[in-house]
């Protein structure tokens, strides 16, 4: 019987004390039109840390430095496409200009997340990072 393994993903919680947290508006399913943390799939042979920095740059235009590991989120139902495990890092911007790229329809800083329609389990991740969504 062949192995079925979850897909490995990363998410970046990019924070700034004055501006809040960066979110991207998803430009494609699932959750098209909802806001999400920048992130994506880890490529074969790529370190999770490198994937996080790459995905942040591709989706937001920002260069980031990883500050610490926030956690690993592995609920089998967190992504309707199938079982994904996300390694999530707290990051700070170090350069670049905020602009939507890759599959992001938009991106911006959020100081207040009240009423923001979030994708996946990102409300839980943001609450873990100290950004309540209600």
Figure out the total of helices. 2
Unreliable runs: none
Please give the largest β-sheet: 7 strands, mixed
Give the H and E element order: EEEEHEEEH
Shape: globular
Helix content: 10-25%
> What oligomeric arrangement do these chains adopt?
single chain
The CATH first-level class comes to Alpha Beta
Mean pLDDT: 96
- The fourth-level CATH homologous superfamily is Nucleoside Triphosphate Pyrophosphohydrolase
Query: How far apart, in Å, are the first and last alpha carbons?
Result: 45 Å
Q: What share of the residues does DSSP label as strand, in percent?
A: 35-45%
- Find the structural class using helix and strand composition: mainly beta
- From the 3D coordinates, which CATH architecture would you assign? Alpha-Beta Complex
Taken together, the total number of domains comes to 1
* CATH fold description: Nucleoside Triphosphate Pyrophosphohydrolase
Rg over CA atoms: 14 Å
The count of DSSP E runs of length 2 or more, i.e. the number of strands, is 7
Give an overview in words.
By secondary structure, the protein is mainly beta. It has a single domain (7-128), classed as Nucleoside Triphosphate Pyrophosphohydrolase, CATH 3.90.79.10. It is built from 2 helices and 7 strands. The chain has helices spanning 48-60, 122-128, and strands at 7-16, 20-26, 35-36, 39-41, 62-73, 84-96, 104-110.
